[in-house]
Write a structure and sequence with these properties.
178 residues; Aminopeptidase; five-stranded antiparallel sheet; 33% strand
Amino acid sequence: MIPDSFSTARLSAERLTSDHLPELLRMHRDPDVMAHLGGVRDAEQTASYLERNLRHWADYGFGLWILRELRGAEAIGRAVLRHLLVEGVDEVEVGYAFYPPFWGRGLATEVATACLAFGRRQLSLRTMVALTSSDNLASQRVLLKAGLVYEREFVHEGAPCSLYRTRDGRSEGADAGT
């Protein structure tokens, strides 16, 4: 079973709840955070996003986590491990997003590696994917560091994306924290 909360060397993660709506609204209104995630979302789109992600937790027992620095009070980002249709195929996606002051510090690699470890160990997944916009070179570097490999370009929800996949059915990144 995937934990409702976990920590890595520098992050704490807590399962998404309906109480996180204000944080999602803040995140979805930030043009820097949302630049590679489909653009800024309004309140209705964010409420729908929250509902979909809460339903995912209820249906599958894993999903989206809100991230904070260890012993920090303020949310700094989010991480996700969830089902995603990729050209009609049910895949499990690993993903992350951080506010700009937390970019370039290795936090995305840290949490992506933890999510991949949960997918391998707790869900026994042979393969997982990650999507990033084709021009998001920083995210592409994160995915490579976490042990995924580039697979191909494709169009997802009307936008060009790069698809990355765990190598030989597994990530070779470092182990997740507890």
